[in-house]
Every structure is written in C-alpha cells, then in structure tokens.
Amino acid sequence: MQRTVDFARIKNIAVVGLSDKPERASYRVAAYLQQAGYRIIPVNPSLTRVLGEKCYPNLEAVPEDISVDVVDIFRRSEDVPPIVETAIKRGVPVIWMQEGVVNEEAAAAAAAAGRVVVMDKCLMQEHQRARVRGG
Length: 135
What we know:
Elements: E1 12-16, H1 25-35, E2 39-43, E3 49-50, E4 53-54, E5 70-73, H2 80-90, E6 94-97, H3 104-112, E7 116-118, H4 123-133
Helix pairs in contact: 2-3
C-alpha cells in the first residue's frame, strides 16, 4: 500500500489536528516542515492561526485555490475516514497518517482511489531519512 513519497514534489502540507502547543508532536513536526521550506496549512477547529498561518476548522474549509499535496493526519485512528474521504474528493495525492495513527479501511479506500498512502510513520522522520539518503 505504501509507495515512495517524492519530497521534492511536495509544496503544501495540510496538517489535520495541528496544535499550537510547542510540546505537541503535531506542532514540532509542522514547525520542522515549515523550516524545511514547505507551506503548512493548519487544520484545527479550535484555532485561528498556527505557525503564522491561517487555521481552517476542517479540510473542507481549505479554499479550493490552495493546492494540497499531502494531508498529514494527527487524529485518533477512528477519526480518520472522513478526513481521507475529503482528501480523496479534493484530489490530494498523498495521505499520511502519523505514527500511531492506523486505519486500514481508510488506507484501503485511499489506495483504491490511486493515492499514495503512508500509515503509522512520522513525516518529519521520513523527511530526515530522505535528506540523509540525498532524496
């Protein structure tokens, strides 16, 4: 199910469940990715701005003129299916479920729709590994 992610082709990453608390993994990962040159699109219904970016209450609220290359999910595994469904409808090419986030049904739906699916892996760690490998 998992295929290789070409980090060079990624520009915009929607981080679903992004916290504004620096001690949280979602914040650390998003801040790292932002510093690495990616545009972070925060998605959290409780916040208005994170990391200097406007925060959207859900993936549906992200304007269509903002292209999303990756949906990075920091939510409970049982909350994943509607997020993946929206990502598929939007045409997002990569669905990424962070470490500890596993939903086989949602992953299968995304894969069946031709999406690259990464599950139970940290996007920051995989990006760091790719940089070490020169990719």
